[in-house]
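Review session, final week

We close the course with one last complete record, chosen because it touches almost every idea we covered. It is DinB family protein, a protein from Isoptericola hypogeus with 175 residues. Go through it on your own first, then we will talk.
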Amino acid sequence: MPLSDVEPRLDSADPAAQFVAYLDYYRAAVVRKLEGMTDAQLRTSLLPSGWTPLEMLTHLVHMERRWFVWGFLGEQVADPWGDNETGEPEGRWHVTDGVGLDALVEALDAGGMRTREIVAHHDLAERGAVGGRFVAGDGTPPTLAWICFHVLQEYARHAGHLDVARELADGATGE
């Protein structure tokens, strides 16, 4: 039984297909949770930790790119920690001035397309490349399967966080 009317109906023995379907599902869930919020609501935190819904979205955009493009493929990417105000792995999330919901949703969708392409063309047992996020001497890079699981749990956890932020902002609840 699906958790919602929009949960993927895919029931496949192909783990790569399941990963892609559920990553798409959670990306869409994040967008649904943000739709209808005013710009002020998107840029205001109602939580003790201080993050805003728009900051969460920029984190998700950068997080997926860090793991699949910079991490797994080993491609150099501009500003891999651009979701953090310090530009480093540790730091408070922030959104660059002038960047709004539409631009971040477009970036989220583009990242999803890139992830689908990566998963379609690589074996889940393949390990991430050395030279991007993973450097020589830091141990064995994770497999694509591990990265898929990690990114999926990030989306699921943060979609739940956005549920709370949305309810606090305007009382809206749901899928």
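Two points worth writing down before the exam:
The CA atoms of residues 70 and 77 lie 6 Å apart.
The chain has a mean pLDDT of 92.
Good luck, everyone.
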